[in-house]
Amino acid sequence: MTEELSRRAALRSATAVASLGLATGLLTRGTPAQALTTQADLTPLKALLTAERNAIKTYDAAVSVLDAATSTDPLFPFQGIVKAIALHFRQQHTEHADKLARYIDRQGGVDDVGEGTAQVPTDFVPGIKNVIDLATNAEKAAAIGYTNTQKSLVLADNAELAAAIGAVESQHFVVLNLAARGFVTPPASTVNQPADALTAVASQFVPRAFAITVDGAPGLDDETDLPFYDVTQ
Amino acid sequence: MKTQNPSDSVLARRRILQGLATVTAASALTACGLNERTNSQNQVNPIDRAREAGALNTLVAAEYVTVDAYTQGAVILTAARDDTSRPQEERDLAALALALATQFQEDHTAHAALLSETVSRLGATPVRADEVSFTPPPNFRPSVGNVLKLAANEERRSAMTFNRVLKGIQTPDSRFILASIEGVDTQHFMVLKALIEALVDVTPALDAAQVVPQPFVASTVSLGGGNGLEEQPDLAVNDQG
């Protein structure tokens, strides 16, 4: 078989090989040599839970700063939408924490990581722009952290959950980074609007708390395709 | 976009996606069992290595299909940008969309390269870019907006596929690579969604190369890939306003 034919054969059979292999894998699991205890994942899962609880507390602190902002803040017209998005992201972190705690419990662990602590640098200066920058930094670290955790997780379900959450932190980062760098501004319709009037708008940024549906929590697979045959827009 | 008869295609996009569906379904089945992995790549048995190589090779093909989709989309966007009969606002949107599409395509090219190298490391022969192509959906209508929408749909689908395949992968490094790619695909999706749904107003400061600033979420350099978000310095939080 020539090299090209070999590649073509590999390409054509990629699906079949993968399917067969995946199915065969069922027969190769659970041998004593491979059967790793589920306890192995508790440490990384608890580390992720700690990070989520810290993120929630950090957003609490950020919302307090936003509430205290005054009209002298250059971004004051955007206070409402920034707060609405912060609350939306905070809620998604809460859902992440709840899911992680549930997984820990199922695997025989105990949720003993505490309520978390706001991660605010000592040189932080209260202001709307600094809140956006703080959240951008935090979400970037979270996205990297979840991705790196793949190297230490053992169980497939845990790896799936970590990926589904990490990809959401990644979306949080990109939204915040766009604003932090001044690449975008919220639409004019949101200017000078209170946060509670902008909840629906904010929920469109990162629409799901998980990248795919995990353990009954909806993911991006719950979103409908955008109509690409629409010629009106 | 170029028109292509699915029956002429060596490996049409639809077939790839169908293949991925099979892979991910099987992956889910596996995950129902005791799906633990061994702790190092060397300890993964030959059957699992072959299985993993097959799954990753399907993702290589999917990445090349996406690269081709962006190439075809760029033809539409370039034409719109250069069409002097269009209002300037439309031409500006086309230029922005083209700049982003070019950047996102570069990311997917980087993803394909790393996945391809990973397949080789597992002892298999990776799919080549010239062996696959993108076939637009039959009812696709070429326009700037529709190119963006199609791209958003594909990025969302891609991210979900990576997440599902990841679950059935045994090797930690491979899982890490897939997660690092998935996060970038979701960034692409979110940016496209924000533009399509006018969730934001774009400013003149926008630098397309910095919108999704790195091709991977976490650095994959040590595995033969590219930079991650670690390269992005933290933003200062002590601005005096």
Automatic annotation (TrEMBL), chain A:
InterPro entries: Ferritin-like_SF, TAT_signal. Pfam families: Ferritin_2 (PF13668). SUPFAM superfamilies: Ferritin-like (SSF47240). This is Ferritin-like domain-containing protein. It comes from Myxococcus llanfairpwllgwyngyllgogerychwyrndrobwllllantysiliogogogochensis.
UniProtKB/TrEMBL annotation, chain B:
Signal peptide: none annotated. Pfam families: Ferritin_2. This is Ferritin-like domain-containing protein. It comes from Myxococcus llanfairpwllgwyngyllgogerychwyrndrobwllllantysiliogogogochensis. The lineage of its organism: Bacteria, Pseudomonadati, Myxococcota, Myxococcia, Myxococcales.
